[in-house]
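Dear colleagues,

I hope this message finds you well. In preparation for our joint manuscript, I am sending the BTB domain-containing protein (Solanum verrucosum) sequence together with its predicted structure, so that both groups work from identical material. I would be grateful if you could confirm receipt.
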Amino acid sequence: MKNDLSDPLTKMDTLGYGSGTGSDFSFAYNNATFSDRILTIQIVPYVKSEGEGCSSTAGDWDRKRKRRREETNKQNVDADLINLSDADVLTQCEDDVLNCTMLDTEDVLAYENQDEEAVAMAEESPSGVEMTTDHPGGGVASKSTDSFTYLNSAAALPVRTIHISSPILAAQSPFFYKLFSNGMKESEQQHVTVQIHASEEAAFMDLLKFMYSNTLSTITPTALLDVLMAADKFEVASCMRHCSRLLLNLPMTCESALLYLDLPSSVSIADAVRPLIDAAKQFLAAHFKDITKFQEEVLNLPLAGIEAVLSNDDLQVASEDAVCDFVLKWARTHYPNLEERREILGSRLCRLIRFPYMTCRKLRKVLTCNDFDPELASKDVLEALFFKAEAPHRQRSLAAEEGNASRSSFVERAYKYRPIKVVEFELPRQQCIVYLDLKREECNNLFPAGRVYSQAFHLGGQGFFLSAHCNMDQQNAFHCFGLFLGMQEKGSVSFAVDYEFAVWTKLTEGYVSKYKGNYTFTGGKAVGYRNLAGLPWTSFMAEDSVYFINGILHLRAVLTILRV
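The corresponding structure tokens are as follows:
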């Protein structure tokens, strides 16, 4: 092949190389006959940081990536250590040697070397790849037929040399395409040098082989992640897709899911990796669906993990009040500094709290909570109150509209304690009207002996709740739907109320009173009616039942204080 490569993609097509066609050119890998350049790979030795173990293999992937993320956030650049993951690109010309050091994949900067000392040269040898080096100390150059050679100078770097085909690499990678076809003198040089970190050597070599064969021999998650990172930095989208598919086919664990979610943003936003990121989020959401069973584990999750768990519409939790309490507990644990905690709550976590489904009592506490930014807290609480004031059909419309959006604050979760609407009056007597809506599916799930509870509400300083049951009628003849009123506080507290239960029907197009009475509560007691509709369960739940309006059962309870 000739070295004048005006357009590697054109030359690739002439030779029959296809981009993204799955063609196998593994026969050309490191084969001088099918190559037009020599790639010298300089290996930067791993430098152990203080307090760190000696290993820098793929097994340390999580630790390395977290360290890189922290360094990125702090904007600490180590100029003495050039890393493949830093994605830095630099082109240097000296005689017929083109030295490329990873600095910035977006730009290729060419400059003339001001140092006139000799540098490592790679030359062809009939028996293999041979490297000749004249080191600054003037010592005798070392020669080897092996593709891996350590230079004699203590300051020099270990290198590997390999024959490459610029059309094949350019077809797979925009990075290499720009490198080989930028129209400058360097793009016509035969020798190319790439400098990478020692821990990334295996991944880079696997990437080069993939660009010829479209296959990978590595199968472990950590090794595939290393190759995925290398493919991202060298812009080999086909390899990123391949790694993502292989990782998706491996069994998902909490550890691997967190690794995928912790990928740098440049990788995680790539279309080729989105299916992997989405699968990791879905796995964590499903695994920690019942958050009450995994409170300690969820509390120890990193930010990306807690976001995946709390984004789940099917999260099994007592109420949104409990979600808010848990978010605050997590934030205080991971961000003890108030300023940092406010920042992370405002930018990442508040959007996961569905304020419209919190109780008014809890919303008032949000307004005075020092952890929240006051302006943001006021905005969220006001939005929640406006939602609560909407008619039910409008609420369902807002939830449906936002269900397709990135934020789902209006979408109701599968709460253990069902949300309610409460209207309170102080005069002429202390009174509250409580509205509870239940879906047909929720009622179906009550059979044969289930219960569902409402969120707590307060009257005269006392906490109450509603509970819907599937139970036997008083004669124990058949199952039926029951509704009960309970008081939370236990002890010697005595509290007398008038109460009335009503249900909306299709026949009247309004609420129909079903049961009323008065009761003096002591803590922990409940009162109600076993058969609210006066029907067997099968009739109550029938498709033509008059009690379900568009699949919703609308219940109302009116409580009035008799004496305190």
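For the figure legend, we might mention the following. The chain has a mean pLDDT of 78. DSSP finds 19 helices and 23 strands in the chain.

With kind regards,
E.M.
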